[in-house]
Amino acid sequence: MQDGTGTEHHINDVISVETQGPVGLICINNPPVNAASHAVRSGLWQAVELLAGNKTIRVIGLYGHGRTFVAGADIREFGKPPQDPWLPDLCNFLEECETPILCVLHGTTLGGGLEIALSCHARIALPGTKIGLPEVTLGILPGAGGTQRAPRLAGVKAALDLIVSGKPIPAEEALGCHLIDRILDGDPRQVALQGAYAVLAGDLPHKRTGSLKVTPDPAAISAMREHLKKTQPLLFSPHRCVDAIEASTSEMTEGLGQERHLFNACMESPQRAGLIHAFFAERAVSKIPERHALPRPLETIGVIGGGTMGSGIATAALLAGFSVSLTERDETGLSRGVETIAQNLEGAVKRGKISDTDRQSLLSGKLMASVGLEPLKTSDLIIEAAFEDMAVKQAIFSELDGIAKPGAILATNTSYLDINKIAASTSRPGDVIGLHFFSPAHIMRLMEVVVAQETSPDAVATGFKLAKNLGKIAVRSGVCDGFIGNRIMTFYKKAADYMMLDGADPAQIDKALTGYGFAMGPYQVADLAGLDISWAANRRRAATRPPEERYVSVADRLCEVGMFGRKTGKGFYIYNDGHPHPNPVALSFLAEERGVAGLKGRPFSDEDIVNRFVTAMILEAARVLDEGIALRPIDIDAVFLFGYGFPRFRGGPMHTADQIGAPELVRRIETYALEDPYYWQVPKLLHVMAENGSSFEDRNREAL
Ligand code: 3H9
């Protein structure tokens, strides 16, 4: 950490100081991301006090060791009793320091890290640095002076964009809006030293950000408020961010006071807990029992089937830089697949993901398309996305067994079928795994990695590695009908159908659930996915459906008259002008079905709809957990957050269950059971939790 001639002194485990003539250097070394933990805050305070008290030191250079300068406050400390010094006090202390402090930004200088930098008196970023205030994505606002100092340097409009979007910007843009003073190449320590001498020489001006005045911009403030009202009406913290930035036109101390008040309100909001849970869920899912196994090499990916799923998977693999071999049964299917991939890639160009030249070279250089399985003999990993039928899949896997090279991973994209049976049709069940993508596969972030009885640990590790390469979030699931996501969805979809039969119209159910924060309601989802998809599964399950189970056949009847949802323009809704309008045919089928069941239809409040739907989701999720299909509650949360449009600010179904509490969930289920004792049965796990007062979070903590 030191290669000069000065003296080095460790303040504590994470902060060290060094003197180089008139320059004092402070280094933060708190891997992995130099989060501003209590040790960092107290060590930094002491280091500045030490150097500021040394009359020979005329400038201080502050930098971070490792991959980044401080990436934010330590999120793990949120919700625990605060420990002095607080980050806001530290930032004020840095700003007040008589000795000028130069800060070097590198890596991802985010949140509290940027707030530290803004409190220093000059800032230099290394090329490639990403600079941002992402607090809003965690349900809070920059609470260590960020809402006051960013507008002082960059103006109200730029501060609004940075803080309300939460999106990091490149160093060049930060330079353009004066958040930083210079971009300089080198390692952080060298740049700190060089910058400090520039400050000493008067080449790099230094100033106190808090002493600057903000020019009011009421037009930008009200435009942002209007925008948020339309786009994020349910979220709490974006609106508070605007309030705090508006306060930056006051004196610094007054603005900081206002920021504190608004920050505390965000911290107390349940949305903060939900969003931070979602942040950790995204990272927790990779902590699987197989994480120490060595993934197999991955260069070429084979895809069997050129339908929507197969083409989407091939697109995702191409976009991640893999060579892809697409196969189909015949030329017609193959050209349809290639055409879909070409369209998907065009979409990626439009979204700015790739250039048109990239698109052309992916299509001509990385994609190989052929009829029959033979060309897959060189693929490292083969994903079958053929028709959802056990006999079809077994035939493919048995043929593949004779073609795929030794060590190739044989994956199925089945969404419901028993992977143990598919694996049994090969002589190498250890290589067989489920990789369940979600449609559109090149866009949706979730991928379930389904581990069958004999799947080897390195095959599982390879599935996770593939997900990482594709930019997806992989969740480990055991084998059952529908795995984690579709199994739970099949169950809660019934709760929606029963409410529909008992009196709530599909549009009311969808509206209540989107009002709760779901991206779409169950009937909008069904129309989008295609009613014909569940029609096939419904027919498959019909033979084993117990007589006590209520069954609502509106969707099946729509399929019988050719209404498959969006793809045919009609389903639960009609889409003649691009917008959904209730389909009278669906409503008449519903009325007929109510008549046959002797039901008049009773009113449901939106609250009742949400409670029944979410309770059903939690009920089946508790069973999935108890059976060991999901490793931990947080894995189930990740599935629903990243694959099923569950509102991120609510943290997922299991996090929501903890907010409701097991005793209340048991009470609800027992009440609903008075109407339908077959469907509403309290799962064993919820009974146990209600009795011993434990939570799903307790289970996460034990497992992680
Ligand atoms: C804030 O600053 C509030 C202030 O305004 C006011 C206070 C008063 N804390 O993502 P990765 C962990 S709010 C604790 O896999 P990458 C992470 O959990 C904060 N831990 O790496 C993981 O642990 P594990 C504002 C953190 O390279 C490990 O580091 N800042 C924090 O893909 C590696 O993370 C943010 O919101 C943290 N702040 O991405 C930034 N950050 O290995 C949040 C990370 O045990 N962080 N960890 O699973 C990020 O966006 C990404 O982590 C980052 C690196 C881009 C930095």
From TrEMBL:
UniProt keywords, alphabetically: Fatty acid metabolism, Isomerase, Lipid degradation, Lipid metabolism, Lyase, Multifunctional enzyme, NAD, Oxidoreductase, Peroxisome
Keyword Lyase: yes
Keyword Lipoprotein: no
Pathway in which the depicted protein is active: Lipid metabolism; fatty acid beta-oxidation
Domain 3-hydroxyacyl-CoA dehydrogenase C-terminal: 482-575, 609-693
InterPro entries from the UniProt entry: 3-OHacyl-CoA_DH_NAD-bd (IPR006176), 3HC_DH_C (IPR006108), 6-PGluconate_DH-like_C_sf (IPR008927), ClpP/crotonase-like_dom_sf (IPR029045), Enoyl-CoA_hydra/iso (IPR001753), NAD(P)-bd_dom_sf (IPR036291)
Subcellular location: Peroxisome
Gene3D superfamilies: 1.10.1040.50, 2-enoyl-CoA Hydratase, Chain A, domain 1 (3.90.226.10), NAD(P)-binding Rossmann-like Domain (3.40.50.720)
Superkingdom of origin: Bacteria
Domain 3-hydroxyacyl-CoA dehydrogenase NAD binding stretches: 300-476
Catalytic activity line of the entry: a (3S)-3-hydroxyacyl-CoA + NAD(+) = a 3-oxoacyl-CoA + NADH + H(+)
PANTHER family, per the entry: 3-HYDROXYACYL-COA DEHYDROGENASE-RELATED, 3-HYDROXYACYL-COA DEHYROGENASE
Protein name (database record): 3-hydroxyacyl-CoA dehydrogenase
Native source species: Roseibium denhamense
